[in-house]
Amino acid sequence: MKVNPNIFRAYDIRGIYPKDLNEGVTYKIGLAFSNFLKNVKEVVVGRDYRLSSPSLRDALLKGLQEGGKDIVDLGEVPVPVFYFGIIHYAKKAGLMITASHLGKEYNGIKLQKERAIPIIGETGIYEIRGMILKNQLKKIEKRTKIIKKDIVQDYIDYLFSRIKLARPLKVILDTGNGACGEIPEIIFRKLGCDVKTLYKEPDGRFPNHNADPHDPETLKDLQKEVIKKKTDFGIAYDGDGDRVGLVDEKGRVVSADFILMMLARQALAYKKGNIVYEIRVSKALFEDAKNHGGKVFISKIGHAYVLLETLKKKAIFGGEFTGHLYFNYCYYPYDDGIFTGLKLAEIISQLPKLSDYVDSLPRYHASPEIFIDSSDEEKFKLIRNLQQYLKANHYNFIDIDGARINFPRGWALIRASNTGPLIKCRFEGETKEDLIEIEKKALKIFKKVGIPITKKTYQDLGLKE
Prior knowledge:
Layout: E1 13-16, H1 23-36, E2 42-47, H2 53-66, E3 70-76, H3 79-87, E4 93-97, E5 106-113, H4 121-133, E6 146-148, H5 152-162, E7 170-174, H6 183-190, E8 194-198, H7 220-229, E9 233-237, E10 244-248, E11 253-254, H8 256-270, E12 274-278, H9 283-291, E13 295-299, H10 303-312, E14 317-319, E15 325-326, H11 337-348, H12 354-360, E16 365-366, E17 370-373, H13 376-392, E18 397-398, E19 403-407, E20 410-416, E21 422-429, H14 432-448, H15 455-460
Parallel strand pairs: 2-3, 2-4, 3-6, 7-8, 7-9, 12-13, 12-14
Antiparallel strand pairs: 1-5, 4-5, 9-10, 10-11, 14-15, 16-21, 17-21, 18-19, 19-20, 20-21
């Protein structure tokens, strides 16, 4: 069986089912994972509600058992419940079948070690890939067992114990037919809130909209319902529950930069310390954290890289632009969209109106994140070519993840996506005019090195080609 090496990505495994990720490949991943973690006796396994997840789960368990591992099967759960199942019960490793916010044709696998720390490319995924491609897999003759365990109530009780609201809130939730289901609603109700959930029933076909709160298009139903029901705010969850989007009482989407700023202020009010952001975020976040007693460190993009940097720097809070957040001062060290929504509720419960608070936050003028189609084979080569060009022409840029080019009154970032066949860009200027000038300058540079800037790229930025 031919295995596509490109499914083994920087911080997880993802591919189209059954073209790239199927039962045969998943069996080999289970066996390779068992060989990779020789001294681990027991592996926690969870899965999302995608239509392909049950058969992939069966293949994964077969590979794990033939590799000599006992299994704790959590069934269909959101990713945070899976993480909780590792760290709360002191397990040593886990595998979660999920493709997060990607379309229904995809599936994937997250790999964790003890304390739910992610196994990424450099710490194991690429080694596991090598074992599979070279067919260096060993079966172990050993009697193994599968233990089915339902931990959802333990998880609900734990989160409820960590949250205190200043007043009851009225809230609309949208779980997008994803794995969170009714879990967030149950916790909000326990906290005394008036709550309604859109698209509560898990459905791996995602019939209403793609469950990706980072995409404003997926938030339109939530925005309408917040206005209609006159709620304090709305929260949308992604397909596997590790990220959220936020809508204020006016039905406006609260940007990722402002969500990060709100939560960093909350953390720094509790305890002064280090903050970790990834390279996409606004300059305003760096300045605001410093003004509130924090010291900011920059990470590569990717939830695993942000987490590892927060642990390395002993940061009290860390965040990624797409919504993977880490509350190391008050919670376990993993990204949990359900907990993030509750921490936002704590802030909102202390405010007369969320919209007034958001409007008061410092800001610069930033573009949305722009996507450029580029194959997995080409995207990294194009970014390397750009880095070489910038270095040769003495540009001021940061290269820890792609290139963040510093201009006198703003910056432009371009990088290869770690999760799909895309190149991603973002731009920021001190004024609207600065932003437009930086966008035009940066696109001109990108085109020079062969990055496929198209008419659509200009349209997405509101520019004329």
